[in-house]
User: What shape does this take?
Amino acid sequence: MKNLTILFTLLLVSVAHADIVRIKTPAINGKLVANNLEMTDWQAVISCHFNYQGSRKESIRYPQTFLTKLEGSNYTLKIKAGSLSEMLPHWELLTCAYKIIFIGKNITTHQIAFGEIFLMGKESGVMSESELQAMQDANQVTKVLNDRTKELVITYGKDGGIVEDI
Assistant: This one.
């Protein structure tokens, strides 16, 4: 019984030093305009980066992502709801991001292009506590993702990659 009490106490202490992450993303029904691009592959990504004993670690989820070509350069963008939940003892949360990875080809030159469009958050550096809290606020995430995907416009960038056309 004494060993069980010690084990239970250690478990509680470990959990007390854990960063707990709960990100829930809504299902998205949006529109994509791909100027001068024909899309060939795509994937939404939810990712969080942690510091664990001086090493940067990552936790990733891939919500199902659908693009349906309409006419011209217009596509419907549908992404199923997703979530990323972690409780990692002694891990420090650094960043979280929601992005869409696109692969396509330039219609004019037929060159293959790749790009990551960040809809919310970032993957490099360290985010502030308020930025990390916003990533875990379901209402805030829903608002931002719905606004950003209402009509997401991408194009072939000067460096040869796919970029957001702002």
In short: The first strand starts at residue 18 and ends at 25. Confidence is low (pLDDT under 50) at residues 6-16. Residues 19-164 form one domain. DSSP finds three helices and eleven strands in the chain.
